[in-house]
Amino acid sequence: CKKCHYRTWPFHKSKIMTTLPPLLPKVDAILVLDGDGNRLAGKYYGEFLKKGEAEEGKISSVEEVRSSFERQLQSKIQGIAARADAAEVVTVMGRTAVFCGGANANSGGGGDVRVVHIGPSGESELVLAHLAEGMYDALSHLMGGATDRTMVLDNLELVFLLIDEHCDGGIILETDGSKLASAVLLRDDEGGMEPEPSQQGMAGTQGLPAGVSGGDMTIGQALRQAREQLLGNLGSRDGM
Question: Would you place residue 126 in the very low, low, confident or very high pLDDT band (cuts 50, 70, 90)?
Answer without folding.
Answer: very high
